[in-house]
Automatic annotation (TrEMBL):
Example GO molecular function: transmembrane transporter activity
PANTHER family in alphabetical order: ABC TRANSPORTER ATP-BINDING PROTEIN, BRANCHED-CHAIN AMINO ACID TRANSPORT SYSTEM PERMEASE PROTEIN LIVH
Subcellular location(s) per record: Cell membrane
Membrane topology (UniProt): Multi-pass membrane protein
Keywords of this entry: Amino-acid transport, Cell membrane, Membrane, Transmembrane, Transmembrane helix, Transport
InterPro entries (alphabetical): ABC_transp_permease (IPR001851), BCAA_transport_permease (IPR052157)
Similarity comment: Belongs to the binding-protein-dependent transport system permease family. LivHM subfamily.
Main location: membrane
A Pfam entry, by short name: BPD_transp_2
Organism: Brevirhabdus pacifica
Name by which UniProt lists this protein: Branched-chain amino acid ABC transporter permease
Top-level taxon of origin: Bacteria
GO cellular component: plasma membrane
């Protein structure tokens, strides 16, 4: 039972990333009808927003510490971060330590701006083009963004730790009646899961309970009729593209302590996220979220030793096997609208 619970937790952890990226993909497809193969790059850019902010906060200058000497007896030169000099040792070091959570505030305007530029500068010209053209141009854009990140940050993963206060693990087993040290899970992974639920709930609440969201949902159902009412639906859809980019970027920011950012991490998640969208149903927001968590849990169980010993490599292909089965039996996905991808 403890192993079962641990695999569920691992699956929810993976599923959180899948669900957040797939949610943004589905927002773009549902509003604009665009298959955006650059969405994984937005996840990557969000992760490097955290890296960038951490490096900015860690900028330092050399000072002479008279209380310390080197092996020759000379006063030692030490590096002092500017934020420590400005705000004092306690607050300054705390700001550096909490750079990843602080990167959320930094990433939101950056990602909205990136999404706006991407949509206005390139993608708007492909609204009425075939999906194959959309895939080619957005995939090319993803490669360009990936190479830009590689040029500035190199090819190696960049460790971006969580705050020290959240770097440990929580003994979940004692809470649910197991012996101590039976089920131990990292704090940050639990925070990432909770964070994903907040973002998902925020997006659904925004679409359901705000006037802007209701107009967007109406435009998703019948764009021409909404436009005939004098509503600038194109401007709202552009803002939704920015929101979708912010969702992907925030997913990347919070994922950095789990998996050190590297220039190809967007591509690693992109294919899996598209599989999640297809399984959940193209254009279905609840389907994207549900499929993200279900496939994350399934992948977690497929990675166990008993599964890989019985079927070697099953952990690498299980998601694709599920996608094949769903496409053969229900082409529109688990919660897709009737007629979508069924022609």
């Amino acid at each position: 039972m403890d192993a079962f619970i641990l695999q569920i937790l691992n699956g929810l952890d993976k599923g959180s990333a899948y669900a957040l990226i797939a949610l943004g993909l589905t927002l773009i497809f549902g509003t604009l009808g665009v298959v955006n193969f650059a969405h994984g790059a937005l996840f990557m850019i969000g992760a490097f927003c955290a890296v960038f902010l951490q490096r900015i906060l860690s900028l330092s200058f050399l000072t002479v510490d008279e209380t310390r000497t080197d092996f020759l007896g000379n006063p030692m030169k030490v590096e002092t971060p500017y934020v420590v000099d400005w705000f004092g040792p306690e607050l300054g070091n705390a700001i550096i330590d909490w750079s990843v959570p602080l990167a959320i505030l930094f990433a939101i305007p950056v990602m909205v701006f990136v999404g706006f530029v991407m949509e206005r500068g390139l993608i708007k010209h492909f609204y009425k083009r075939p999906h194959a053209d959309q895939i080619l141009v957005t995939f090319g854009l993803a490669i360009v963004l990936q190479e830009i990140i590689k040029y500035f940050y190199g090819a190696n993963p960049i460790p971006t730790p969580a705050p020290r206060a959240l770097a440990g693990a929580f003994d979940i087993g004692t809470v649910i009646g197991f012996d101590a040290n039976t089920i131990i899970y990292p704090y940050w992974r639990m925070i990432y899961f909770a964070f994903s639920l907040i973002i998902i709930g925020g997006v659904f609440g925004f679409l359901r309970y705000t006037t802007f969201g209701m107009v967007v949902r109406a435009g998703m159902a019948d764009r021409e009729t909404v436009g005939m009412l004098g509503i600038d639906i194109d401007r709202r859809f552009t803002l939704m593209f920015g929101i979708a980019a912010a969702v992907a970027g925030l997913a990347g920011v919070m994922y950095t302590p789990i998996n050190p950012p590297n220039y190809h991490m967007g591509m690693d998640f992109l294919v899996l996220s598209f599989v999640v969208v297809v399984v959940g149903g193209m254009g279905s927001l609840p389907g994207a979220v549900l499929a993200g968590f279900l496939l994350g849990i399934l992948e977690s169980f497929a990675s166990t030793s008993w599964a890989t010993s019985a079927l070697p490599g099953i952990n690498q292909i299980i998601i694709y096997l599920v996608a094949i089965i769903v496409l053969l039996t229900r082409p529109r996905g688990l919660m897709g609208r009737k007629g979508v991808m069924e022609e």
